[in-house]
Amino acid sequence: MGDILEFPTHDAKIKKLEDTLTGWIAGLESTYDELDALHDSLNNMEKEAARQEKDYDEVIKEYIDEVGIENVPALWLTYSRSCVMKATAEGEYEMIWLGTDLDD
């Protein structure tokens, strides 16, 4: 008979696992980089939204001073950081203006 060749099954399996793990590591690193960029973007968007809300509150306050809060569409008030909704015992709601001196 001929020579019997021993296949490097253990070594080949280890190499395959290492290659697989290396591929996963590269993929995870890429995903983590993307998550970091998305977190930065979200943080910047939150800062921009806070700036817009502050500016909106200044204009809505001026409008409220002119027409009275009861004459402001409720939808407009929902965009304000300075207004809260309070339920009444009668099942109605009341919009309460807190003012524009809220913390940023």
SSE arrangement:
Blueprint: H1 9-67, H2 74-78, E1 83-87, E2 93-97
Antiparallel strand pairs: 1-2
Give the SSE string: HHEE
The rounded Rg comes to: 31 Å
Shape: rod-shaped
**What is the arithmetic mean of pLDDT?**
88
N-to-C CA distance: 86 Å
Structural write-up:
The protein is about 60% helix and about 10% strand. It has helices at about 10-65, 75-80, and strands spanning about 85, 95. A hairpin with a 5-residue loop joins strand 1 (about 85) and strand 2 (about 95). The relative contact order is 0.08.
List keywords for this structure.
104 residues, mainly alpha, 2 strands, 10% strand, two-stranded antiparallel sheet, rod-shaped
Task: Give a concise summary.
This protein is mainly alpha-helical and 104 residues long. It has helices at 9-67, 74-78, and strands at residues 83-87, 93-97.
